[in-house]
Write a structure and sequence with these properties.
By secondary structure, this protein is α/β, with parallel strands linked by helices. It has a single domain, classed as Dihydrofolate Reductase, subunit A (3-Layer(aba) Sandwich), CATH 3.40.430.10. The protein has five helices and 15 strands. The structure holds NADP nicotinamide-adenine-dinucleotide phosphate.
């Protein structure tokens, strides 16, 4: 937990699995699998340390993940950031929904019918204020804090992590790096939407830890703020 301008928001980690050249998916949008089985299992175990796991709706549409905790007794709230409620009702995130629940953070752009259908199926639908035509993330983080969520793991994609970093909502990065190079400018970068004009304006990570996992490495770093 941390106070941001005297408002409380959960402690937040952003995680990505990327190639050496910083790509999280091929130009087709396919991301299975960048890292080794061992690294993916380690990453899944980390979910146990969080109250909520959050992804952008494009990740659900492209990857159709389940976003479950390996520990059946652990309540992990799945949060999908989806300003128009584009998510399919058949999405796998809705499987095993009773374990920790599933929350769709949407806006008034979503159809009332779709919101009602999802709500009837046990999904928590929260209409958030908009910022830049999308879900207002600061509002959402405060809402989640008030709802009892203290630790959030953002598991992608690039737009959601970029916006959370831009708004200073991320405390720590967990970057799994595979010894692969895609070398394709149309493959997706791990973070997008930031527009630094020079290198000094880039996000700096401090207190770096490097953990080898099989052929991959995990880089953990705290987002440095005192710039
Ligand atoms: N390797 C990895 O670690 C990894 C992890 C996850 C995903 N991926 C890959 O990443 C790709 C998807 O990433 P992506 O960057 O395209 O999309 P994303 O971050 O998964 O989702 C972005 C979408 O979320 C919605 N959204 C609503 N409010 C938002 C806000 N305030 N900030 C940001 N997004 C908001 C927007 O759609 P609306 O405007 O419709 O609301 C936006 O287009 C897929 O190809 C997937 O395979 C890779």
């Amino acid at each position: 937990m941390r106070a941001k301008n005297a408002v409380h928001i959960p402690f937040t980690v952003a995680k990505s699995a990327q190639t050496l050249d910083g790509k999280i998916a091929a130009r087709t949008g396919r991301s299975k699998w960048i890292t080794s089985t061992k690294a993916r299992n380690f990453a899944r175990q980390q979910r146990e340390n969080f109250d909520a796991i959050m992804v952008g709706v494009n990740t659900v549409i492209k990857d159709d993940p389940r976003l479950t905790s390996l520990n059946k007794n652990h309540k992990l709230l799945k949060v999908i950031v989806d300003s128009s409620c584009r998510i399919s009702r058949q999405a796998q995130v809705f499987a095993g929904i009773k374990q920790g629940g599933c929350l769709i953070a949407t806006t008034k752009k979503a159809s009332v019918r779709k919101m009602n259908l999802l709500a009837r199926e046990g999904v928590e639908v929260v209409q958030c204020p908009q910022q830049r035509d999308k879900v207002n993330l600061l509002w959402l983080f405060q809402y989640l804090y008030q709802r009892g969520i203290r630790k959030i793991l953002i598991e992608g994609g690039a737009q959601l992590i970029g916006e959370a970093l831009r708004l200073n909502l991320v405390e720590q990065m967990h970057i799994y790096i595979a010894p692969k190079i895609l070398g394709d400018e149309q493959a997706l970068n791990s973070v997008v939407g930031l527009k630094p004009l020079d290198i000094q304006q880039g996000i700096l990570l401090k207190k770096i830890k490097v953990i080898p996992i099989d052929q991959d490495i995990l880089v953990i770093g705290n987002v440095y703020r005192d710039r």
